[in-house]
Amino acid sequence: MRSQGFEVLRADLADPKTHKAGFWQPHARDAVAVVNAAGLLEGSETAFRTVHLDAPRALYRAMGAEAQIVLISAIGIEAETRFARFRRAGEALLDEAPCPGTILRPGLVLGETSYGGSSLLRALAAMPLVTPVVGDGAQPVNPMHAGDLAALVVQAVRGEIAGAPFDTGGAERVTQADLVRRLRSWMGLPPVPLWRVPLPLARLMGRAGTALKLGPISQSAVAQLEHGIASNPAPETTTRGLSDYLAARPAGTQDLWHARLYLMKPAIRLVLALLWLVSGLLGLLLPAETVLASVDTGLPDAAALASGRLGGALDLGIAAALLAGWRLRMMAWVQIAVVAGYTAALTVLAPALWLDPFGALLKNLPILMLLAIHLILERER
């Protein structure tokens, strides 16, 4: 980052221009090393191909023979899943590169902050009444600290470790249940009963998460937790155990807030989608006389009915975008504009609604606040 003293090249790996060596040439030809940490857990076939194959192939071709490539892959890529297939294909790309490369295969990586799967684990640990685990919770996992992974990357760049894939993981092996319990204790929360989510239910939730684009709540995430995320670290590597780095940095208020808000992010989106869906269906399907009798706007009947029907169609469009996970930050602004517009229009046409005992217009104020929170939560980086 410029503010931290170094330049950053922003590139969308789905953009076809990043699939040509010429895009990377000015930046990569004099590079000492390239660390490829790009990867997807969920996505379409096209998205996986662009991120794991097309863009990295172009980047590698633009590099000089004296450079070094470090690819951060993943353990457990023997399965016949899309995630595993493209991880294997991404590793094979190094055979085509003009310079030597090293492959690191970490399992679960935790750090001072969290993102994706590690955020999901913190969120599960912070749930108020139960601590959910997938299946019996006995699956093994040996999480490593992001700082230890960074140290291995430095070793690889220096040539101290090189060549064939190195499994990397923490020095301490625990179960999935132990991990979420320890994260809960780390956040200063009292213990609650363990909820062993039956595998069929967990898989169903993963499929729903994938279909609705609920981030780390996905088929791949459930599959990883179901089978465990443990590795046997290569003897050339040295890492700390879970107990060491949890004790080294106590949790703060921001950790607890983030963990408790993390699952609220998809929940808020689904609640808003339900609001717009029902509002849209009512606007389109209620009988004309019901629509006209609901609010006295002073408009001619034809104009009032047309407004109701058009509003219903708009509401259904917003609901569809939310359910599809389409451009959610932009859609948050659209929702704010629509609610504010409805409120302003009704304030002019039917100001008495502010005194409605059921809060017909007053309810829009907390809805606007919820939309503001939705907008904030949808930006993760």
Termini separation: 13 Å
> C-alpha Rg, in Å?
25 Å
Mean pLDDT across all residues, rounded? Answer: 91
**Total of DSSP H or I helical runs spanning 4+ residues:** 15
Quickly give the structural class.
alpha/beta
Query: SSE string, helix = H, strand = E?
Result: HEHEHEEHEEEHEEHEHHHHHHHHH
Largest sheet: 4 strands, parallel
Counted beta strands: 10
Low-confidence stretches: none
**Percent of sequence in beta strands:** 5-15%
Summarize the structure.
The protein is α/β, with parallel strands linked by helices and 381 residues long. It contains 15 helices and 10 strands.
Key terms:
two-stranded parallel sheet, alpha/beta, 381 residues, four-stranded parallel beta sheet, 52% helix
What can you see in these coordinates?
With 381 residues, this protein is an alpha/beta fold. 52% of the residues lie in helices and 10% in strands. The strands form 4 sheets. It has a 4-stranded parallel sheet with strand order 1-2-3-8, with helices on one face. Strand 1, helix 2 and strand 2 (68-72) form a beta-alpha-beta unit. The longest helix has 24 residues, at 301-324. The protein is globular. The model has no long low-confidence stretch (mean pLDDT 91).
